[in-house]
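Renewal narrative, Specific Aim 1. Our central claim is that a sequence can be written position by position from structural information alone. The example that follows is taken directly from our test logs and has not been curated for this report. It begins with the structure tokens describing the chain, in the order in which they were read.
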């Protein structure tokens, strides 16, 4: 036996490996210790932190070294004589894999000519090092072109894309509610194929929204099959999260059927029970998902921790039949007295469904006079019924809304499930774009203790990487890509509100993306080390 530091470290590593293996079975250690021990300094050494590695296993007090874009050492740096060009003292702080957000609307930011938007700081300050975008059916099929733009312009976080079924259908079918015929279906197939071959992680849909709402389940299955044979996931904003058409449970069954018949994993976007008609149905929704999982299907969901969803006045209240053909057709329907009467009836019912006029808050609109007001306040000020005010707003260019329609019990029931990831669905005007991960941490982990810190990190990193087929990320383990965050358990918190939705989160001390420090001591360093991630 020898007592060399290297030998001791290897022994320690073996012991730790056994412990880690019994917890989660994936921690890899020890192969590059030799290089470090021989005196080659690492680039970054994060010392004295509490490492929550993303696997769901318990936190450990270990040091983490990074060389190039990889994690090259985990263990006791002093004992192994690890040195580094830059040392971060993480005493009292949590070290975790960079969070991965499976549902964002960051595409415009990442594609922007404004370097500040491309930095994606609203996500970096939440600890999110990778955003998946193109959700709700809105993703591009020009995947290679988008990835090339990110590479040449530079992005702050990593990004990954989903091909949008809505973009594909609109390209071929416009706003038509007709069934796609053979040649049209073939054209749509070829666009999905193109996006997948160029590196998309899967196909997204937003079957609630026109024109995607006009499609049959069978048509979606046909296109999902193309994503499936390219190894992709089916990611869906359900046809109904409430009681509009097929109902929440019917829509979950539809998504599961699509995944089953196309032979691919299914992810339910921002799972929720929207509106009093379906409050309490989280139990049934969970039972349906868990039955499919028990039968061997891969079914997951993501969720943001807010009682308001983010939508628009039109998408919330217009019946989909009124949107067939697009904006001009809608205007013609409003102008026709008989059609208008039917429209008002349907919109009145949809408003009831969502909780009434006081539950819709205008968050982003070109009409400054209504910004920050509820539909009820706008209607009162104009002396007209809420639905009439809604029609005026829609015809005047529309408005984004925060739509208060969920209850805490359902939110917590979904959140406790080990197959539910953290996902922001970040969009303009809603605080979730700046606050999802820290809000979930401060309220549901530190506050109500609905989740352990380890479960939160797992739902925000490894689970998402595995679900979406992102390789070599989502865990703190030797040999993995160095997307690492360091934050303060006590102060990590959202600052964004419905009134001030663009306040950056606090408490995120260090963010490392591909081995480069992009947030240092809580401040953005100005670099753009993000890459486009493909399958
Ligand atoms: Zn959505």
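The sequence written for that structure reads:
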């Amino acid at each position: 036996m020898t007592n060399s530091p290297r030998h001791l470290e290897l022994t320690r590593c073996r012991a730790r490996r056994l412990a880690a293996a019994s917890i989660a079975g994936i921690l890899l250690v020890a192969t590059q210790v030799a290089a470090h021990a021989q005196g080659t300094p690492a680039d970054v050494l994060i010392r004295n932190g509490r490492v929550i590695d993303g696997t769901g296993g318990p936190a450990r007090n270990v040091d983490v070294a990074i060389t190039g874009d990889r994690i090259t050492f985990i263990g006791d740096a002093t004992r192994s004589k690890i040195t580094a060009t830059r040392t971060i003292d993480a005493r009292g702080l949590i070290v975790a894999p960079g969070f991965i957000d499976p549902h964002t609307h960051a595409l415009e930011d990442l594609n922007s000519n404004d370097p500040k938007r491309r930095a994606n700081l609203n996500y970096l300050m939440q600890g999110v090092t990778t955003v998946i975008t193109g959700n709700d059916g809105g993703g591009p099929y020009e995947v290679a072109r988008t990835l090339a733009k990110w590479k040449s312009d530079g992005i702050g976080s990593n990004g990954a894309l989903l091909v949008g079924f809505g973009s594909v259908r609109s390209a071929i079918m416009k706003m038509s509610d007709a069934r796609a015929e053979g040649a049209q279906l073939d054209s749509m197939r070829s666009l999905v194929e193109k996006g997948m071959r160029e590196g998309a992680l899967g196909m997204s849909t937003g079957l609630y929204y026109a024109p995607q709402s006009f499609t049959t389940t069978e048509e979606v299955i046909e296109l999902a099959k193309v994503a499936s044979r390219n190894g992709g996931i089916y990611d869906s904003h359900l046809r109904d999260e409430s009681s509009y058409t097929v109902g929440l449970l019917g829509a979950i069954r539809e998504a599961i059927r699509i995944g089953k018949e196309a032979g691919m994993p299914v992810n339910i976007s921002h799972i929720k029970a929207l509106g009093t008609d379906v409050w309490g149905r989280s139990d049934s929704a969970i039972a349906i998902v868990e039955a499919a999982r028990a039968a061997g299907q891969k079914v997951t969901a993501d969720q943001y921790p807010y009682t308001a969803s983010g939508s628009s006045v039109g998408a919330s209240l217009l019946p989909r039949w009124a949107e067939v053909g697009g904006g001009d057709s809608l205007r013609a329907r409003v102008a026709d007295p008989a059609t208008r009467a039917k429209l008002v009836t349907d919109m009145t019912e949809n408003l009831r469904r969502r909780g009434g006029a006081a539950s819709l808050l205008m968050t982003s609109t070109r009409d400054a006079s209504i910004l920050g007001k509820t539909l009820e306040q706008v209607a009162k000020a104009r002396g007209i019924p809420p639905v009439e005010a809604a029609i005026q707003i829609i015809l005047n260019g529309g408005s984004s809304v925060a739509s208060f329609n969920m209850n805490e019990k359902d939110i917590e029931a979904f959140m406790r499930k080990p197959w539910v990831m953290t996902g922001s669905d970040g969009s303009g005007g809603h605080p979730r774009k700046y606050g999802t991960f820290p809000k979930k941490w401060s309220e549901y982990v530190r506050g109500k203790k609905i989740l352990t810190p380890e479960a939160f990190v797992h739902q925000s990193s490894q689970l998402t990487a595995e679900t979406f087929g992102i390789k070599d990320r989502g865990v703190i383990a030797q040999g993995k890509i160095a997307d690492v965050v360091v934050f303060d358990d006590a102060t990590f918190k959202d600052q964004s509100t419905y009134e001030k939705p663009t306040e950056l989160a606090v408490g995120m001390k260090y963010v490392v993306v591909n081995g480069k420090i992009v947030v240092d001591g809580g401040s953005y360093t100005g670099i753009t080390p993000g890459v486009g991630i493909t399958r």
